[in-house]
Design goal:
heterodimer, A: 280 residues, alpha/beta, Rossmann fold, 2 domains, 7-stranded mixed sheet, 3-stranded antiparallel sheet, 10 helices, 40% helix, globular, B: 182 residues
Chain lengths: 280, 182
């Protein structure tokens, strides 16, 4: 264990030597990440800091280690139903649709979106942007290759989202995942088919420090289970940033246990699981 | 006081009994971290609420914990409690194959509430919770373990007793009396 002064010194080192700002992260979950890094490298805080100061590659690795990289295929089907039946129909007449996955991790949410858009016949009109702070996960996302074991349990969600309509129980479509993925159980590989790769633009982006990474306004921003690692102050800054980057009546999709509280909440209108930009 | 209850396989009965015995307007705050099947994401709050006199809810990230409410760690998230009684959720990798992990919630309660924390560990089939219970004890809090004889699955409580000098080993009924008189 260590003192809170140690954590502040660690944060300062990453700011001074890497220009990363972790000062507004949620206290306990950040502390746990740091403890894990200390255990993995068998270094105490002063040793970690001195290595951060002298070894740039190590510093970048530590930043990647701090980030949490959970993503699932069609995580929380009810959210995808809201996207499918509440957001996308509203955009049906738009010639160009911009979608940003902020904090996309290894890209499973991005491919979920591509699949859904393809099924709805909207994919050719969409620009899909995806960013993350961690360049390792972006490489995985671009390749679209995953472990079969890790993914097989989410295929149930695939069926729920693509085949069922919770608003109309009579409707039942048949979409098989072989249409989108190639897999090899023995080699434990689950791969996005070639024709669905290279559709999204993946790019490194730091939500805390960087401006809008693409020169567009978004119809949908998905930022799910990313802001939970930030404190209220930083969350509110980002809710304001997203509000600026959203197109008129654009939608913000958060994780199912996230909400907008604080001064920026007045800038959004909550409809079910979705936050819509209010325009004054 | 801040009461945190952890349980896994075989704990549902004890948890519902504890919640049923806690009176309306209870002056303490209750946190629940229970393992459940990954696919059973909904309906759990409703099931626990049936016999409970106090409200039970799954908190949103950055919600503030209030006395007289029981907060259940949401499925597929770890639940931390930061300073100012504020929840922080996380989707870090499962710990002991569990998300939510009892160790994560217990350690964070230990760190935030120190001697004002009461940790209760119930029946369960893995070791998650043992380290967390020790953390509460080490931080000056009170720790209670359901009597392993009463547990449907003893792994969790036995693991905790092995590494921590627990304050009480009690049957569910005695835990109920303890909580009522708090």
């Amino acid at each position: 264990m260590f003192e809170s002064a140690d954590i502040l010194n660690f944060i300062k080192a990453l700011r001074d030597y890497g220009r990363y700002d972790f000062s507004n992260y949620s206290e306990k979950s950040f502390t746990r990440r740091v403890e894990k890094i200390m255990m993995d490298y068998k270094l105490d805080i002063p040793q970690l800091i001195s290595k951060i100061k002298t070894d740039r590659n190590f510093m970048e690795q530590v930043v990647r280690d701090i980030t949490v990289n959970t993503t699932e295929l069609f995580r929380d089907p009810q959210v995808w139903h809201a996207i499918k039946y509440r957001i996308l129909p509203r955009l049906a007449s738009k010639r160009e649709i911009n979608i940003w996955h902020a904090g996309c991790s290894t890209g499973l949410e991005v491919y979920s979106m591509i699949i859904l858009l393809n099924e709805m016949g909207m994919l050719h009109r969409c620009h899909i942007y995806a960013t993350d702070l961690n360049t390792d996960v972006l490489k995985t996302a671009q390749k679209g290759v995953y472990s079969y074991r890790s993914i097989s349990e989410y295929l149930e969600n695939f069926n729920k989202v693509l085949c069922e309509n919770p608003y109309n129980f009579d409707e039942h479509l048949v979409v098989t995942y072989e249409k989108y993925f190639e897999f090899n159980k023995i080699k434990d590989i689950f791969k996005v088919k070639e024709e669905f790769l290279n559709i999204a633009t993946f790019q490194k982006h730091d939500l805390v420090n960087d401006p809008n990474p693409f020169d567009v306004s978004y119809d949908i921003i998905l930022c799910r289970n990313v802001l939970i690692y930030f404190n209220n102050t930083l969350q509110n800054k980002l809710f304001l940033d997203f509000w600026k980057y959203l197109d008129t009546y654009g939608s913000l999709v958060l994780g199912i246990h996230e909400s907008i509280i604080g001064p920026t909440s007045a800038k959004y209108e909550k409809r079910g699981l979705i936050y819509n930009k209010k325009v004054f | 006081m801040y009461i945190v209850i952890g349980g896994s396989a075989g704990s549902f009965q004890a948890v519902t009994a504890l919640l049923a015995s806690i009176p309306r307007n209870y002056p303490h705050t209750i946190f629940l971290c229970l393992h459940r099947l990954k696919n059973v994401r909904g309906g759990f709050v409703e099931a626990l609420s049936l016999k409970s006199n106090i409200p039970i809810c799954e908190p949103y990230d950055k919600d503030t914990a209030m006395p007289g409410v029981a907060y259940l760690a949401p499925a597929n998230y770890h639940m931390y409690i930061d300073a100012n009684n504020q929840f922080s959720l996380s989707t870090e990798e499962p710990i002991n194959h569990s998300r939510p992990s009892i160790d994560v919630t217990f350690c964070s309660i230990a760190n935030t509430y120190k001697e004002n924390a009461i940790g209760i560990l119930l029946s369960g089939a893995n070791k998650d919770g043992a380290l967390g219970l020790k953390a509460i004890k080490d931080a000056g809090g009170t720790v209670i373990v359901q009597s392993p004889d009463e547990c449907q699955v003893k792994t969790m409580t036995s693991a905790a007793i092995k590494i921590t000098e627990v304050d009480y080993i009690m049957l569910t009924n005695n835990i109920i009396d303890y909580l009522k008189n708090l």
